[in-house]
Amino acid sequence: MQVQQNPSIPVSEVYWSLLHKADKKFSKIRELPYYHRNRHKVFKVYTQLWKFQQENRQKLVDAGLRRSEIGEIASRIAQLYLGQYMRTSEASYLSEAYIFYEAILSRVYFKEGMFQDLSLANKQLRFISRFLVVCLLLNRRSLEGGDEEDAWRRVGVVENVGVGEGAGEGDGEAAGGIIKEEEEEAWRW
Length: 189
Hints:
By secondary structure, this protein is mostly helical. The protein is about 65% helix and about 0% strand.
């Protein structure tokens, strides 16, 4: 369904209205158990929102849309696919979630401003944890691009959490010095 835009209404107003509608529907289904959720309407409004922001990206960026907000929309769509997979066990939904999460990772939507905004860092950590779950469920040990460490470095995981070479090798600094030496043994697998 195409969003009808009145020429007298600014593109940014239409976008924020669609976003508000999508967020409202998303928060409603989050409160319901998996077997009661009707995701069709939520998928529909997020599809409209995604297409609208793609078609009007430059106007929206000029009006103040940030990359992290685009990433948040993509993350919500991936969450919907993941939730639908949890409900139906249909692998196609899991593959769609992977596509969205991998796109978020490769386009580094959450990197900008992550160190200044705690809520943005929280969103990135949630995205990473969901993406890792999807990778584990799909048994994906590598990313499509092939250079996993570079992909994780782009979102700040290697430098800030200690993924990649040297992580967990007993130096106590793999996670920014947070893990104490006596606790480190419990973290090794």
